[in-house]
Write a structure and sequence with these properties.
- The chain has two domains: 254 residues, Rossmann fold (3-Layer(aba) Sandwich); 219 residues, L-amino peptidase D-ALA esterase/amidase (4-Layer Sandwich), CATH 3.60.70.
- Helix content is 29%, strand content 29%.
- Helix 4 packs antiparallel against helix 5 and helix 11 runs parallel beside helix 12.
- The strands form five sheets. Strands 13, 14, 15, 16, 17, 18, 20, 22 and 23 form a nine-stranded mixed sheet that branches. It has a six-stranded mixed sheet with strand order 6-7-8-3-9-10, sandwiched between helices. The protein has a four-stranded antiparallel sheet with strand order 2-1-4-5, with helices on one face.
- It is an alpha/beta fold and 494 residues long.
- The structure holds adenosine-5'-triphosphate (ATP).
Length: 494
């Protein structure tokens, strides 16, 4: 379809792009990324014949690009350049009609029915049909961009070259445009080469990504391979984080502010936490946000929080929409929902236990409340038809005064669960239905909170340094709260 073979090109003595090579198949989308001035537009210019390579060649359908007439190449390749000068006195429709020019035998055959149909379709698909009679100079930047795209589409090319096509477009039209291109790549086998500054758009919509650095081909592969954190940080000279997109299998690149702009934290961060206890709740407050991962009622999943609430509810608490009800409660006590992670429990808050432990290089703080009347042996819970939601649950908060990898968050959840279960076993807590040792209760919840800066702890499993500290701190906290709970219920020391 189109082959770029060892292309070197520039505007003077010094080449701007050097030795670029790749092949593209019909229906493929290639995202071209790279910093300002890295040669993306220059490469594109070579691909549509606006700039002759100093070395190497471009082959289109087995024929050198230079061997095509301008009209014949326009039947195969349409271009949406970065800056386009259009005679703005033209109407939108007239501009789009220009896209049919390469296919016409003579100017007067222009009004052919088929051409009109193709122009209408292009106007429709780019959402500009409603103002097709407006003059170009009455349009906004984004509207003009869509008209120029319609003109490129009316050309019915096999290959579409786009230089920052999402420039000027609002997010809805950006997605719309890229969705349309993806659809045409599938249904019309359109080959798309698009220079994109938005790395996440490039990752989501490209089959492959070409990364340029100083005119050189730094990487060419699937987005997940090219968009490696260290590589992007080096090429863009920026601090980035790479995550996985929450809903599609694509990398998600986020910008990290410089450390000067991050929230300042005190030397000993755990000392900066303060606790407010009322009959209705325990609230732990921090002067800065912690990165949390939790199964809390409010603020579950990953989030950023500085207020942590454990609220006591009656054992008969029943609500169809506990999240909404809880949100109203938090508002009533004056907390900002976006800043708050909140759990609830029918266990007595007075029975709660706080444990602080220092490891070699990390401080840990754990808070636990426990009630065990709905204790469950998880290995037998499949035998239940419905779960019992009476009083009692085990809520755990684990604060680690360090930065954690996502893997470490998950491993700390496991470590904490194992430590909790061990405490239940040592206190001989039984599942009341199966009469076997309980592994937890039916409504347990856990929150892990860590810092956003500093050296990262990669692992949090049971034999890692931080895992060992957390294992012991969680075991001690759950044991203490169980001790208070059982003592109060039996009236005896445990
Ligand atoms: N017509 C020209 N004459 C001389 N130099 C040029 C010309 N066009 C571009 N350059 C230079 O070539 C280099 C690469 O420019 P190019 O536009 O290809 O980069 P780019 O990666 O598309 O940048 P951007 O992301 O800023 O659009 C730059 O240093 C630029 O100044």
């Amino acid at each position: 379809m189109i082959q770029v073979k060892n292309v070197t090109a520039g505007y003077g003595m010094k080449p701007v792009v050097e030795n670029i090579s790749f092949d593209m198949e019909a229906g493929e989308i290639l995202g071209v990324i790279g910093p300002n001035g890295s040669g993306k537009s220059t490469l594109l210019k070579c691909m549509y014949g606006a700039l002759k390579p100093d070395d190497g060649e471009i082959i289109v359908d087995n024929k050198r690009l230079g061997a095509y007439t301008q009209k014949n190449i326009a039947k195969k390749i349409a271009v949406l350049p970065q800056q386009t000068d259009v005679a703005f006195s033209y109407t939108v429709r007239q501009v789009v009609e220009l896209g049919r020019y390469p296919h016409q035998k003579g100017w007067f055959s222009f009004q052919q029915k088929q051409d009109e149909h193709i122009v209408d379709k292009a106007l429709q698909e780019t959402g500009v049909l409603s103002f097709s009679n407006h003059p170009m100079d009455s349009l906004s930047g984004g509207e003009k961009q869509r008209v120029l795209l319609a003109r490129a589409l009316a050309q019915e090319p096999d290959i579409l070259l786009l230089d920052e096509p999402t420039n000027h477009l609002d997010i809805s039209y950006q997605l719309n445009l890229l969705d349309t291109l993806k659809d045409w790549s599938k249904t019309k086998q359109l080959t798309v080469i698009a220079v994109l500054h938005d790395l996440n758009m490039a990752a989501m919509y490209s089959h492959r990504v070409l990364l340029l650095e100083d005119g050189r081909q730094k990487a060419l592969d699937k987005p997940s391979v090219v968009m490696e954190k260290n590589r992007l940080e080096h090429v863009y000279q920026a601090h980035l984080e790479r995550k996985e997109h929450p809903s599609v299998p694509s990398p998600l690149i986020t910008l990290e502010p410089s450390s000067d702009t991050l929230e300042r934290k005190r030397e000993n961060v755990l000392d900066s936490l303060s606790i407010e206890k009322t009959p209705g709740h325990v609230c732990l407050m921090s002067p800065f946000h912690w990165k949390t991962f939790s199964s809390a009622v409010v603020g579950a999943g990953f989030g950023w929080h500085r207020y942590f609430v454990n609220r006591h509810v009656d054992k008969d608490y029943a609500c169809d929409q506990p999240k909404q009800e809880y949100t109203a409660y938090l508002k009533k006590i004056g907390l900002d929902i976006d800043d708050t992670a909140a759990m609830m429990t029918a266990a007595r808050l007075d029975d709660g236990a706080f444990v602080r432990m220092a490891g070699d290089n990390h401080d840990v703080f754990v808070y636990a409340t426990a009630g065990t009347s709905n204790a469950v042996d998880v290995s037998k819970s499949y035998e239940y038809y419905s779960m019992n939601h009476t009083a009692g649950t085990i809520n755990l908060w684990i604060f680690v005064a360090h930065r954690l990898s996502e893997a470490a968050y998950a491993q700390i959840m496991m470590t904490a669960t194992e430590a909790k279960t061990k405490a239940l076993m040592d206190y001989r807590i039984y599942d009341p239905k199966t009469k076997t040792l309980a592994t937890g209760t039916s409504t347990d919840s856990v929150l892990v909170a860590a810092l956003s800066e500093g050296e990262e702890i990669e692992y949090g499993g049971t034999i890692t340094p931080v895992g060992k500290t957390i294992g012991k701190a969680v075991y001690d906290a759950v044991s203490r709260t169980l001790n208070h709970y059982l003592k109060r219920r039996s009236g005896n020391e445990i």
